[in-house]
Amino acid sequence: MRTLSHSEPKGKVIKNLPLDERAVTIPASEPFRLEGGRQIDPYLLVAAEKQELQKRVAELLDRERKLKEELESLRAKFMEEQKKTEAELREAKEKLEKEAMEAKEEEKKKGFEEGYKDGLKKAYEEVEKRVKEEYKQRFQNVEKQLVKAVETLQKNLDEEIERCSPIMVEIWKALLQRLLRKEIDLDEQLVLRVFKEIMAKVSDRRRVRLFVNPQDKDLFLKKSEEMAEIKRVIEEFELIGDATIEKGSCMVETNLGVYDARWKTQLEAIEREIQSLMGESLHVP
Fold it and tell me: What family is it from (predicted)?
């Protein structure tokens, strides 16, 4: 006997494994059952989760807007401090030049030209040092506030993305399942095409067992020409109706192994890949 692996992608052959016939399916319309016997449509739950996600996103965007406003306020304060410091620097320079001119006139009168030069140099150095220290102190405080605001914003974004990721995956699963069911309802011959694609890849066609949903089995039996062609190219063909197989999908057992073309298996593989990608994106520095 042979079975399939739930972790293998569509079309990959698994050799020499026993067939597991346990029911694994995506229910077409079965509602969830809660305490007290009440039943709720799963899509209502998805809609509620979607509304909650939208609410959290709106809150996140509001916090982001407030942080941006705070950043803009800090930038404006930074520019104001810069202009104020530049004005003070110009004023100090003008005052120094005025004092220097007065000192020069006074020194000239006293005949102390050399002392004037030394005094002027010391005055310049003292004013420059004082202005630099004040400028540095002011802008260090503003820079710290800016860095803290940016770090807070990034932390909030990371936390919200990590919290909302599982909800987003569940919403994606429900929407994709609905799309698949709609495609199956619109195209009743979908399973026939899937089976033909699988058989095009199978080299050993001596014995083939095809597991399909009972509704799809009826479809195969009605297609007399297709069934005649299948029996012509396959030595031993067995068509088995299995209610655990989703409508529109199938499993094919051959001498080489089992091909799992059920929608549930493919959805699970895609879900694992998405969760892995989300996990990697959250840990990227």
Answer: Belongs to the FliH family.
